[in-house]
Design goal:
With 119 residues, the chain is mainly alpha-helical. The protein is built from 4 helices and no strands. It is 76% helix and 0% strand.
């Protein structure tokens, strides 16, 4: 998945910029735990934007802010995967294979659902 590799390389370049900024301004770089804490904050921001998009909360920024938070979360996942030395493409494929089998088995065990009546 060359596109994912490209995104991960770009995420790491930005991470290196943050490392330099944090080193100069705080005297230290973020470790993996700091990155995870930042990710949790980004997920919270994403949740607020989703709530706003669904009309459950007033937040500025609209779709642009929602897209930004989605990209922030992706950045965190890409950086954490690299920092923990995971091949994210392989892990994603492995996990999706497991989920497809698991959900398929559960669906196969259920009675067939009748089609909804035509309108």
């Amino acid at each position: 998945m060359a596109e994912l590799d490209r995104l991960q390389e770009r995420a790491m370049r930005v991470c290196e910029l943050y490392d330099e900024l944090n080193l100069r301004t705080r005297g230290r770089v973020w470790d993996r735990a700091d990155l995870m804490t930042g990710f949790v904050g980004d997920v919270g921001d994403l949740a607020k934007q989703v709530m706003a998009a669904e009309g459950r909360r007033d937040m500025p920024g609209g779709r642009e802010a929602l897209a930004h938070e989605l990209a922030d979360c992706l950045w965190s996942v890409l950086v954490l995967a690299r920092r923990y030395d995971f091949d994210l493409t392989a892990e994603f494929d492995r996990t999706m294979d497991q989920l497809e089998r698991h959900v398929g088995e559960r669906l196969a065990a259920l009675p067939a659902q009748a089609a909804p009546p035509a309108a």
